[in-house]
């Protein structure tokens, strides 16, 4: 029983370990893709397992956020030098604009609820999935098209999160869309 209680946290810790190993791989190599994919899968399943097994905890949520941050930093450090030349020049402006909207959403949430909040909306999950897929698809699909699609999806999810935080009366990180408010 004790193993079941910590299964989700163990999966999250495996993401930290795989991210650390990913740091030492060649970008876009077979080893990189294996570790990148493994890390992405663990990110998708750890929270689901914790909820299904009723083993969610504040410590697990913090551990998940730390694992996400480590994975994102390592992925960015490894992929940016390799992929940055492929993206269209306007992408930086779009990313900055989306970032400002996203930071505004976080600021509104922090001011209203006196803590950092990030919502688990469907649009945020779709954005994360499409962003995760970029290293797999940029070689096969025109990166300009991928950039447009990603910016549209990320922009919609950022605006939606801002609107939800403005409209939300009681904090609910699991709100799925603006239509639930």
UniProtKB/TrEMBL annotation:
Compartments it resides in: Membrane
Protein name: CDP-diacylglycerol--glycerol-3-phosphate 3-phosphatidyltransferase
Family that this chain belongs to: Belongs to the CDP-alcohol phosphatidyltransferase class-I family.
Domain of life: Bacteria
Pfam families with a match to the protein in the record: CDP-OH_P_transf
PROSITE patterns (alphabetical): CDP_ALCOHOL_P_TRANSF
Organism of derivation: Sedimentibacter saalensis
Membrane topology, as annotated: Multi-pass membrane protein
């Amino acid at each position: 029983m004790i193993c079941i209680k910590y299964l989700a946290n163990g999966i999250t810790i495996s993401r930290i370990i795989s991210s650390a190993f990913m740091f030492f791989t060649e970008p876009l190599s077979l080893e990189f893709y294996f570790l990148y994919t493994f890390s992405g899968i663990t990110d998708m399943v750890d929270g689901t397992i914790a909820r299904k097994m009723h083993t969610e905890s504040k410590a697990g949520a913090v551990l998940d956020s730390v694992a996400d941050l480590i994975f994102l930093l390592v992925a960015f450090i490894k992929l940016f030098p390799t992929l940055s030349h492929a993206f269209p020049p306007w992408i930086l402006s779009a990313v900055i604009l989306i970032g400002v909207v996203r930071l505004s959403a976080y600021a509104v949430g922090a001011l209203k609820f006196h803590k950092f909040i990030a919502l688990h909306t469907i649009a945020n999950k779709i954005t994360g999935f499409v962003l995760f897929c970029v290293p797999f698809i940029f070689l096969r699909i025109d990166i300009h098209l991928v950039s447009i699609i990603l910016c549209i999806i990320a922009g919609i999810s950022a605006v939606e999160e801002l609107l939800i935080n403005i409209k939300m009366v009681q904090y609910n990180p699991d709100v799925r869309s603006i239509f639930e408010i």
